[in-house]
Amino acid sequence: MTLGTVIPGAGAASGSGRLHVPGRSAGNADSPEPNPVTDADLVYFTSASGYTGRFAAKLNRPSARIPLLTSAPTLLARRPYVLLLPTYGGTAAQPGAAAKGAVPKQVIKFLNVESNRELIRGVIGAGNTNFGENYCLAADIISAKCKVPVLYRFELMGTSEDAATVNQGLEEFWTHQSRKPA
Ligand SMILES: Cc1cc2nc3c(=O)[nH]c(=O)nc-3n(C[C@H](O)[C@H](O)[C@H](O)COP(=O)(O)O)c2cc1C
């Protein structure tokens, strides 16, 4: 499976791999601005349409947004987190082949940072079932590459039931995680 612009070997466990966005640095070489940092256990990306951001707001829990501009210094996570992201326009070069370009470039830039890859613990996908087998594909791709589970999938901005299920699921997930041996 490929992540479009992914370089093989990206894995949270080893931290050895690297996702590659051509012409972009993972840090702040493009700008003198410092990288924003977060201790939130939920990190999300939302595009200008903002549906995923609206879902994140419904959760009423601390969360941090990956910058919209790919040229902006990316977010740095300081604690383990779950990643929430939409899928955008994955296309397969041939029928049956893995789709490329499904993971937003901003998220690839965020995951290019080794410490961000090491801290990811799970992924939640936002999408639209009209896209058939590409529904929430970005979450599946990140799950496979970073070796973390897909915790949930929902459509567009999600329903209040989705939000309640995710909130309860995250509580249980983090309780379980904290009991794991280091
Ligand atoms: C150009 C385009 C391509 C999309 N491709 C997919 C796709 O391949 N799979 C999917 O599940 N959703 C796809 N979607 C739906 C978005 O993931 C969905 O609308 C999501 O809620 C957008 O979140 P955002 O507003 O936070 O960016 C696509 C939407 C657009 C506009």
Number of helices: 5
SSE order: EEHEEEEEHHEHEH
Low-confidence stretches: 1-25
Report the bound ligands by name, code or SMILES: flavin mononucleotide
Helix percentage range: 25-40%
Gross morphology: globular
Average pLDDT: 84
How would you characterize the largest beta sheet?
A: 5 strands, parallel
- In the CATH scheme, the class of the domain at 37-90 and 97-156 would be Alpha Beta
Spatial arrangement of strands, main beta sheet: 3-2-5-8-9
| Proportion of strand residues | 15-25%
Q: Give the number of DSSP strands.
A: 9
Radius of gyration: 15 Å
Structural class of the secondary structure composition? Answer: alpha/beta
CATH topology of the domain at 37-90 and 97-156: Rossmann fold
Region (Disordered): 14-36
Family: Belongs to the NrdI family.
Pfam families: Flavodoxin_NdrI (PF07972)
InterPro entries: Flavoprotein-like_sf (IPR029039), RNR_Ib_NrdI_bac (IPR020852), RNR_NrdI (IPR004465)
